[in-house]
Design a protein that fits this description.
alpha/beta, 7-stranded mixed sheet, two-stranded antiparallel sheet, globular, 240 residues
Length: 240
């Protein structure tokens, strides 16, 4: 059974120790780092015996501790992060959307809300769906909201009502906890223009489901939101 082994390996101390242990059943397979089942001896498990005796498999303490809280099963649960992506100008944050589609392609729940974008047949009850797990909401408006649009007396009430309806729908969806990632596009600008209350955004972030990652994008990011962020990304060039 050992005829094809090199002579150097045959006479090595590690091999002789491993060979001696093959007279007993080997405990192989792991549950974390501990054996969980026993198999009959076989030459195929010689490397496994050496690995089981190796100090390299001893788990080391990591210097960085992840934020977590106990779940319903008593196991640690990693907390989601609040990420801000801002710029001195209005922009389509391509990297954020690319990450949203990547997670959706993996089957994770994703919610994208564009508070200042309208379109045909949009609104809180008519989301666009991609990859079966990404819902994309826009305002129920035939136009996109700009600062110039808000100067028109006939457009301002429409914009306020539509943004508020979408904001209420967003809060309900987040409270359900079905999404792993939530992207609130240009929320900072909606706050800056007085369409959404800054205090309500802070309350939403504080009360969101613990596992949920939230990404806020847009210029004019309020200082209070910057203070709540786990990660802040600032784009200094347009069209990124």
């Amino acid at each position: 059974m050992y005829r094809n082994l090199p002579s150097g390996l045959w006479h090595s101390t590690s091999f002789q120790r491993a060979k001696a242990q093959l007279t007993e059943p080997l405990a192989v397979g792991f549950d974390g780092m501990r054996p969980n089942r026993t198999l009959a001896p076989s030459t195929a498990w010689i490397p496994m015996v050496v690995q089981l005796n190796s100090p390299l498999l001893q788990r080391a303490e990591f210097p960085v501790q992840a934020h977590h809280s106990p779940g319903s099963e008593g196991l640690p649960r990693v907390e989601g992060r609040v990420q801000l992506v801002t710029a001195p100008h209005r922009s389509f944050f391509t990297s954020v959307m690319a990450e949203a589609f990547r997670l959706a392609g993996q089957g994770m729940g994703v919610l994208v809300v564009q508070f200042l974008k309208g379109g045909v047949h949009q609104g809180g009850d008519r989301p666009m769906n991609f990859c079966r797990s990404l819902d994309w909401f826009r305002c129920n408006l035939p136009f996109c909201i700009t600062e110039a649009q808000l100067q028109h007396t006939d457009r301002l009430p429409q914009a306020q009502a539509s943004v508020q309806a979408l904001w209420q729908r967003t809060q309900q969806r987040i409270a359900q906890g079905q999404d792993n990632l939530v992207v609130l596009d240009e929320l900072s600008l909606a706050v800056h223009w007085g369409l959404i209350a800054e205090g309500e955004v802070l309350q939403l972030l504080a009360n969101r489901p613990i596992h949920m990652d939230v990404v806020l994008t847009g210029p004019h990011m309020p200082e209070s939101l910057l203070n709540q962020a786990d990660q802040i990304t600032e784009l200094r060039r347009p069209h990124l």
